[in-house]
Amino acid sequence: MKFKILHLLIFIILPVNIILGWGEEGHMLIARKAVMLLPEEMADFKQWGYFIEEHSPDPDKRKREDKTEDPKHYIDLDYYKEFRIGEMIYNKEKLSELYSDSIVNEIGILPWATVETYKNLVKAFKDKNRDRILIYSSDLAHYVADGHQPMHTILNYDGQLSNQKGLHARYEIHMVNRYLDEIDNSFYPQVPFYVSDPLNFVFYYITTANLVSGLIYDADEHAFAETGLRETEDYYRILWFRTKYITVLQMNSAANNLASLIYSAWTDAGKPDCKDLG
Q: Are 80 and 159 contacting, i.e. CB atoms less than 8 angstroms apart?
């Protein structure tokens, strides 16, 4: 009964998490940088980078028509006691046995949606189905980027529980768009690697995003305390000053982890010749 009451209170308080991951520009930047990191042996695939970049925001657009899409973009990890005590259950079926399918879906299914998309990409590579390869690569780009946005991993995703409502958009869209050129110039060379266990890998970077989320809330409070207002240029300048290091780090990690998952999907498919995709 205690759990049911907690669950009811949370969903009375919280609106559905429908805010974009890094904003359209941020998503496209991460996708572009990820494709650039892919090894030369995937050069024939890399020529399609423009498509993946342009279509990386597509999953957000699908939310308008597809009611099943929204939960794929987030997971409020701190809802689960198992996460709070450092024993998170990665298996979706086991988690559903404890909490029910409906609750797990409401709390968000980002890690499992990411892995499902990864598996679909592996199959598309095996089938040498160009259209599906590009669609699933674009979707994977979106879900991986969402998993690195700290506010897509917590219950207080919009500051609505800490009197900071609207922080989600202020941080990921308004601030990121203001400093997009600086972020672009802050990407550094990385080497993608083979991921042997995609589910554990996805949970690792989503957990990291959750654990650094407090820096964003602290930065918002500091910027507001200094300026007395939100949505001003001074506010955004201070917010950026206080969050730019973690923002750049998370977006760089998103790019390399996405590149690693695309490389791994191609490898799991037997490294098919991508010349046939032309």
A: no
**pLDDT category of residue 260 using cuts at 50, 70 and 90:** very high
Find, among 139, 138, 124, the residue nearest to 274 by Cα. 124
Centroid of chain to Cα 230: 25
CA–CA separation, 120 and 114 (whole Å): 10
Per the CB < 8 A criterion, the answer to whether 172 and 20 are in contact is yes
User: Alpha-carbon distance 35 to 52, whole Å?
Assistant: 8
The matching CATH number, chosen from 1.10.10.10, 1.10.260.30, 1.10.575.10, 2.60.120.600, for 24-277 is 1.10.575.10
Domain residue ranges of the chain, discontinuous segments joined by +: 24-277
This model's pTM is above 0.85: yes
Non-local CB neighbours of 92 within 8 Å, separated by 6+ positions: 104, 109, 112
pLDDT band at 18 (very low <50, low <70, confident <90, very high): very low
